[in-house]
Design brief:
Largest sheet: none
Number of helices: 8
Structural class: mainly alpha
Radius of gyration: 23 Å
Shape: elongated
Strand content: under 5%
Number of strands: 0
Length: 183
């Protein structure tokens, strides 16, 4: 994201000069949008995130540290915006997948990602130790309470809670690895 706006322009922006902001915007907007797009693969959303980034830059212009690399600063903000977008999108997709009687239709790309996540979760569950796998399936597939699972498997409720917690942690780690590999 190297556009090398001079320190004087950044100091002027830091003091609230709108012309300096325009100079920075013109120098970086396209690069920021392209960088965000490389993460999220949506032109419209990349444009929206880049615009939000610059709005926040203007709002927080006093906090710009001119003694540090401005390119690195923008790079970090853009990367964080893209990652937060992907996290939010994942939560939203998971919610929509689990909501009965969906009224909105999803795109084929979203359906593919949802299917891949389902396969990833199923694979992760199959690799779990036998008791953890069984507890997870009884909880999620059969909808049994922790107490009902404990009775059925002749174990303690605390063990069921612990095993479910470990199962969910493994699933979250697998999903995180998948998201990082996509980035």
């Amino acid at each position: 994201m190297n556009s090398n706006v001079d320190t004087t322009t950044l100091e002027t922006l830091q003091h609230g000069n709108h012309a300096a902001f325009e100079t920075v915007f013109i120098a970086y907007y396209s690069k920021v949008k392209t960088f965000i797009y490389s993460y999220i693969k949506s032109e419209a959303d990349a444009e929206e995130l880049a615009e939000e980034l610059f709005v926040n830059l203007w709002i927080n212009h006093r906090s710009i540290n001119t003694s540090k690399s401005f390119d690195a600063y923008l790079h970090t903000i853009a990367r964080n915006a893209a990652i937060n977008y992907l996290k939010h999108k994942h939560v939203e997709d998971a919610y929509l997948k689990n909501t009965p009687n969906q009224t909105c239709s999803s795109t084929s790309e979203e359906e593919l990602i949802a299917r891949e996540l389902g396969i990833l979760i199923d694979d992760t569950v199959e690799k779990m130790p036998q008791q953890r796998k069984e507890i997870y399936k009884l909880s999620r597939n059969e909808g049994l309470s922790n107490e009902e699972i404990a009775i059925r498997l002749n174990t303690t409720k605390r063990n069921v809670e612990s095993q479910l917690s470990l199962a969910l942690k493994e699933i979250r780690q697998a999903i995180s690895c998948l998201l990082w590999s996509l980035l």
